[in-house]
Amino acid sequence: MQHPPIHNHGFNERHEFRFRRHCFKNRSMDAFFAPVPLRIPRPNSFRNKTNGSSENADRNGFGENQSRSSPCKRNDKPNMYSNLTLMVKPPPIERNLECTLEELCYGCMKKVKITRDVLTLSGQTIQEDEVLSIKVQAGWKKGTKVTFEGMGNESPRAYAADVTFVITEKRHSLFRRDGDDLELSVEIPLVKALTGCSVPIPLLGGETMNLEIDEIIGPGYQRVIEGQGMANKKHEGSRGNLKVFFVINFPKELTCEQRAAAVILLGD
């Protein structure tokens, strides 16, 4: 008895080959090949092949001796991002700036020439002159500091140093400063100290005023002239006082007649 043929619903070997060929022709080859994911090592997975110890790694996961473009290739060029962490700030360079009492009282503009080390684009160090302008404000005192940021010496792997000027007071031939006040010592002969007089008093600005004294000047006597001291920085337009101390000049010798007259005049 003959069995009926087994049908494959219209598919034979020839049709199956054409069907598979049609699929390969109209579909991308990527559909048949799954992508292989790349494993990104963590920073502490870098190992030294010699001793097995961990190497330093930067924040992006690349070690000191590894290139960002090829993790297996050594990069001898310095890492820009790593160098930033090595930048240090050197201490400031301090210099004294001497000012007269007149300059500190009325203010002025001072120019200071400095010589500093500068790095060129090729990495060489050269010396360069700079002129810095400092506006001294009325009322500044000794110890006041003025800082110019980044105007000091330049060096590799470091920020430029700052230059700090410290105000110092030049000694005056007549006046001595005490805060916002000025002190002045004036010599006066004994006879004027006893009889009264008009004493010329020099002022800081170069002027002179006459001070009338009608009383007897004894040891420790002083007078205060208001508003003739140093400028007050906290209160614009105001000034301290001028304290005048009197130094009595006694005669080194007297004749017999002068002694007798002094006894009669002053008594025993």
Automatic annotation (TrEMBL):
State where composition is biased (Polar residues). 45-55, 63-72
Q: Which UniProt keywords apply?
A: Chaperone
Read off the InterPro entries from this record: DnaJ_C, DnaJ_subfamily_B, HSP40/DnaJ_pept-bd
Q: For the region Disordered, what residue ranges are annotated?
A: 43-76
Q: Name one Pfam family in it.
A: DnaJ_C
Q: Enumerate the spans annotated as Chaperone DnaJ C-terminal domain.
A: 93-251
Give the residues annotated as coiled coil: none
Q: Which protein, by its recorded name, is this?
A: Chaperone DnaJ C-terminal domain-containing protein
Q: Write down the species.
A: Hibiscus sabdariffa (roselle)
